[in-house]
Design brief:
This protein is an alpha/beta fold. It is built from 15 helices and eleven strands. Its main location: membrane.
């Protein structure tokens, strides 16, 4: 909650600073131009904030979670698109009112005569394309790698928009303070992206040099991958977190997939457990020991860092058991584990869960059966865990199951701060 409040305060302070800079830059006589310039400034601010949200800075990620940061990034992106569209429309119609030109010819005239306007229009066109492929309907039909490649053009749009602001922005050129502010804002946003997404992963991988030591089948569709490396005791990973993994083989080096650690880090080895049912993961079963691995992370706020109660309820569905199993290994206090699967044969890592539960004095419930009737409905959960309102609840599983369980928890009055979950669909 502190991290969220800090992020909101950060944005509010910058929104106020932009308003002050706008006022200092002077007002045009045409109200449409005034509105257009203001929309452009807030579009630039939202764009810089959007970069910060996906910079993957460890401090923010551990406290808020990459899934929530990515969701905020997505909605901020639509804010960027609408404010910049408003900027173009209001400014164009404002100048057209004074020149007598129709809006289209006025826009062409501005692009031809005002430095930086053409670059801004190219940036806007790129953002429109990116916004289109980010819509849910388009996103479902597109491979993650294709979507990610298109998304990289957002950085081109950022550079083009910034050069337009340097050339034509009144709040940028009207004072030395304004110039320093915008340079610092854009420099800080781009610097955060470089540090979090380029420098830190390269440094960590150069230091730890991860390699596959074994690939062990858990059943017909699930394998566990064991890795080792150098100085893993200095890798700041915790049970419940995940990495973006690239296995550096000829056919997989360009694919990055988010997989949680399925065992608590012990400073010597790492383990992930993967369902190999889709095109993007089927090849993991064939990875040879000795294969180098490039891992980005650790990421995620699904850790014991956010506990509010001494006891815990861990709810897993399907292969979502992987971070739950790791958390059980790390958590202190009394724990109840509820593992939801369709049939006994689908209960991956159940033997490990049973042994861990026995060693730690935890309760373990294997809940089997088809999705209907709901075996984790409010009455069923209350029967399995009568004191669940007094526990932290950690939840991981397929989205439909998670949505149903979250509804049950709300019905049973579990306070929001005690419910911890992350959705791992952000990267494919």
């Amino acid at each position: 909650m502190v991290a969220r409040a800090g992020l909101y305060a950060f944005l509010a302070a910058h929104a106020a600073a932009v308003a002050v800079l706008f006022a200092q830059g002077g007002f045009a006589s045409n109200a449409l131009i005034v509105l257009g310039r203001l929309a452009g400034l807030y579009g630039a601010l939202f764009m810089a904030f959007q970069l910060l949200l996906v910079a993957r800075l460890p401090w923010l990620d551990r406290r808020i979670g990459m899934d929530r940061l990515t969701s905020w990034h997505r909605w901020t992106g639509f804010g960027v698109l609408w404010t910049l569209l408003a900027h173009v429309v209001f400014v164009t119609f404002g100048y057209a009112r004074g020149s007598g030109l129709d809006p289209l010819n006025q826009l062409v005239d501005l692009a031809e005569t005002v430095e930086g306007v053409l670059r801004a229009l190219v940036a806007l066109a790129l953002l429109v394309v990116i916004g289109g492929v980010s819509a849910r309907a388009a996103r479902r039909r597109m491979a993650y790698e294709t979507w990610h490649f298109v998304h990289l053009y957002a950085y081109v749009a950022v550079v083009l928009a910034f050069t337009h602001q340097i050339a034509a922005g009144t709040s940028f050129t009207s004072s030395a303070w304004g110039t320093a502010y915008w340079y610092a804002l854009w420099g800080g946003a781009l610097g955060a992206v470089f540090a979090g997404r380029v420098a830190l992963p390269l440094w960590r991988n150069g230091r730890h040099r991860l390699r596959v030591t074994a690939v062990v089948p858990e059943n017909d569709h699930v394998v566990s991958v064991y890795l080792t490396g150098r100085d893993l005791d200095r890798l700041p990973a915790r049970a419940g977190q995940f990495f973006l993994w690239r296995f550096l083989t000829r056919d997989r080096w360009w694919q990055a997939n988010p997989f949680s650690l399925s065992a608590a880090p012990d400073g010597r080895t790492l383990r992930l457990t993967v369902k190999t049912a889709g095109d993007g993961t089927a090849g993991i079963r064939r990875i040879e020991p000795g294969t180098r691995v490039f891992a980005e992370g650790p990421y995620g706020a699904f850790t014991a860092l956010h506990r509010t109660r001494p006891d815990a309820l861990l709810i897993a569905g399907g292969v979502g058991v992987t971070p739950i199993r790791a958390l059980l290994e790390e958590l202190d206090g009394h724990a109840v584990v509820v593992y939801r699967v369709t049939a006994d044969r689908d209960a991956v890592l159940y033997g490990e869960l049973r042994d861990l539960a026995a060693a730690k004095g935890a309760e373990l419930h294997l809940v089997t059966g088809p999705p209907v009737p709901d075996r984790l409905a409010p009455a069923e959960l209350a029967r399995l865990v009568p004191d669940l309102a007094d526990r932290d609840v950690f939840l991981c599983g397929p989205p439909p199951m998670m949505n149903a369980v979250l509804g049950s928890l709300r019905t049973l009055g579990v306070p929001g701060p005690q419910i911890h979950f992350e959705r791992f669909s952000l990267a494919g």
